Amino acid sequence: QVQLVESGGGLVQAGGSLRLSCAASGRTFSSYAMGWFRQAPGKEREFVAAISSSGISTYYADSVKGRFTISRDNAKNTVYLQMNSLKPEDTAVYSCAEDPWLTAQAMGVRGRVPTFWGQGTQVTVSS
């Protein structure tokens, strides 16, 4: 059974930084692409970033390019999301996701929904 557990969310002022972590268990972590998604109140869930199984390829939503960085440590079964220059519009519940059949690039395609999800961690950016 796949388990994904996020941590690192919190309250930060605009312009600040946070680093989210997602610890995975239950399958061979290094074999699968991982993604981060977010959902703000009253809005649809949206793709944020994804990383290939090797960590070589990364993909970002236009809204976070240049500010967020996704990375992974396969030895620790953990994927990270470094978020810099945070804006109030980044406020959302952030969730990591995994799917054995989706590539990192495919996770960014609208309508391609990963199978396994974490419970999410709240990120609140104050103005």
3D structure, described in words:
The chain has 127 residues and is mainly beta. It is 3% helix and 46% strand. The chain contains one helix and eleven strands, in the order βββββββββαββ. The strands form two sheets. Strands 2, 4, 5, 6, 9, 10 and 11 form a seven-stranded mixed sheet that branches. Strand 4 and strand 5 form a beta hairpin. It is globular. The N and C termini lie far apart (40 Å).
Number of strands: 11
Order of helices and strands: EEEEEEEEEHEE
Assembly classification: single chain
Count the DSSP helices.
1
Average pLDDT, to the nearest integer?
A: 95
Report how far the terminal alpha carbons are from each other. Answer: 40 Å
Radius of gyration of CA atoms, rounded to a whole number: 13 Å
Secondary structure class reads mainly beta
Describe the main β-sheet briefly: 7 strands, mixed
Uncertain runs with pLDDT below 50, 5 residues or more?
Answer: none
Strand content: over 45%
Basic shape = globular
Helix content: under 10%
Helix/strand layout:
Layout: E1 3-7, E2 10-13, E3 18-25, E4 34-39, E5 46-51, E6 58-60, E7 68-73, E8 78-83, E9 92-98, H1 104-107, E10 116-117, E11 121-126
Parallel strand pairs: 2-11
Antiparallel strand pairs: 1-3, 3-8, 4-5, 4-9, 5-6, 7-8, 9-10, 9-11
Keywords:
127 residues; mainly beta; 7-stranded mixed sheet; 4-stranded antiparallel sheet; 3% helix; globular
Task: Give a brief rundown of this model.
The chain has 127 residues and is mostly beta strands. It is built from 1 helix and 11 strands; from the N terminus they run E-E-E-E-E-E-E-E-E-H-E-E. It has one helix at residues 104-107, and strands at residues 3-7, 10-13, 18-25, 34-39, 46-51, 58-60, 68-73, 78-83, 92-98, 116-117, 121-126.
